[in-house]
Amino acid sequence: MRRVPRSRTGEHVDVLIVGAGLSGIGAAHQLQSALPGRTYTILEARDTLGGTWDLFRYPGVRSDSDMHTLGYRFRPWADAKVIADGPSILRYVRDTAAEAGIDRHIRFRHRVRRASWSTEDGLWTVEAEHDGEPVRLTANFLYVCAGYYRYDAGHAPRFPGSERYRGTLVHPQHWPDELDHTGKKVVVIGSGATAVTLVPAMAERAAHVTMLQRSPTYILALPSEDRLANRLRRLLGPRLAYPIVRWKNVAVATLLYQLSRRRPRLVRGLIRRATIAQLPPGYDVDTHFRPSYQPWDQRLCLVPDGDLFRAIRQGHASVVTDHVEEFTETGLRLRSGAELDADIVVSATGLSLLAFGGIELEVDGHTVALPETMAYKGMMLSGVPNFVFTIGYTNASWTLKADLVSEYVVRLLRHLDRHGYDSCVPVNDDPAVTERPLLDFDAGYVLRAIDQFPRAGSRRPWRLGMSYAHDLLALRYGRIDDGNLRFARTPDVVPSRQG
After folding, report:
1. Are 356 and 375 in contact (CB under 8 A)?
2. 232: domain CATH number?
3. Please, where are the H alpha helices in 263-397?
């Protein structure tokens, strides 16, 4: 049974979702489909939905996972391309919201600043800012789908001499609509997913594009279309074909990841041979495409139909492995003494992480210090009641985990109703559980900020797993009352209508 406090005043919802991106729209869909009697609202800091897929508008922006796993479990991805462009993904998210009426529950330009839990009332009081004015709501459950990076600023290192540069310096997270790179010399600083996307896309119109990297990244070419998926879609229809292809892709990705961790030398060799086959004869592969780390210590970059390698073969793009010494008036001077002329320099230097959209959490008047909390099942915080967040996989599609989290939330809410509880809170009382970083990942953007995030534990359910199959069993079918959650009833409440 769902309950609300007698003393409640002002606006109240059962579940308050923060963020109207891929995760938030998926969470709302699962919630209203399974529990149509529940009230919910989505607060979105920006003026439109779509999250990442609306924010990033640089040339060629696309998914870095296949769309049969990045797409929602409940809504088949029907396009032929398995690695989709940003506008197609944005349209997919917006169509999902519109068709289910989720867009009517979104409040745009509402940035959540603070959320305070009261055990006495069994409520969250959430303070947001809308066009400079304060807004306050209460909710029984707080569900944060704000991702883990800062939307208003990417990581932008200070480059010596950048103030004297007479060309255009731009960060992909803030791409100017009016920027025209046709016939221009372009240098892209970076070697991650954004850089390997930008280089071939800009090379189509630029005079030349140079990818300037401090060190190489593992890059793997794959077909832009999944022939098996397209064939099964024609034979079986999208609804029947989708789960088959989804599980096939999960299995292939899991196999590659596990093989990379257990037989790294074998996988390094396979990727190196595949890279050599994509590049011109005699190309210095070991300088520009041989990373110093093992496969999947950082995320593997995918290039559809080998478009980056094709741009290099055609002479439209090149790779330079060196360090920026300083900017000059016309480009960059490198540590080796070489100079690169550039009309446009793109600083594809990564993200700045931000836990829970920067929301300040408080429980019964005490500020929650995130590094002092431990993540339960990678989706709740020790000592923080009725709070759930979404962080996806680093070795697979984000949505695989997001879907499981939203399914678990539905199961958890049903469990509370069934037993007459109003709140639940994870508690770690096992002294054998030791602390670990929440994200065990060597990417620079993670290492720069991981100490500001909650901790993970050395064993389940406190360890953030990176296995979809294991999480599926634990979150979709595992016991809710597993001994690590504490449930409670709030006395000063009256029954409300059934959820």
Report:
1. no
2. 3.50.50.60
3. 264-278, 285-288, 307-313
Q: Tokens representing 141?
A: 């459950």
Name the strand (E) or helix (H) holding 39.
none
Cα 227 to chain centroid, rounded: 27
* CA–CA dist 452, 470 (Å, integer): 27
Number of domains in the chain: 2
Question: What confidence tens digit (pLDDT) does each residue in 88-147 have?
Answer: 999 999 999 999 999 999 999 999 999 999 999 999 999 999 999 999 999 999 999 998
Residue 106: strand pairing partners:
42
Statement to judge: residues 74 and 23 lie in one domain: yes
Name residue 173's amino acid. Q
Residues sharing a CB contact under 8 Å with residue 450, sequence separation 6 or more, in sequence order: 353, 437, 438, 439
Judge whether 157 lies within some domain: no
Q: Which long-range contacts (CB under 8 A, 24 or more apart) does 152-160 make?
A: 153/352, 154/349, 154/350, 154/351, 154/352, 155/349, 155/350, 155/351, 155/352, 155/444, 155/445, 155/448, 156/347, 156/349, 157/347, 157/349, 159/324, 159/326, 159/327, 159/347, 160/324, 160/325, 160/326, 160/327
pLDDT in tens, 294-331: 888 878 898 999 999 999 999 999 999 999 999 999 99
Which string of DSSP letters, residue by residue, matches 391-434? ---SSS-HHHHHHHHHHHHHHHHHHHHHHT--EEEE----TT--
What is the tens place of the pLDDT at every residue in 288-300?
A: 999 998 888 878 8
CB 91 within 8 Å of CB 79: no
Residues 386 and 463 in one domain: yes
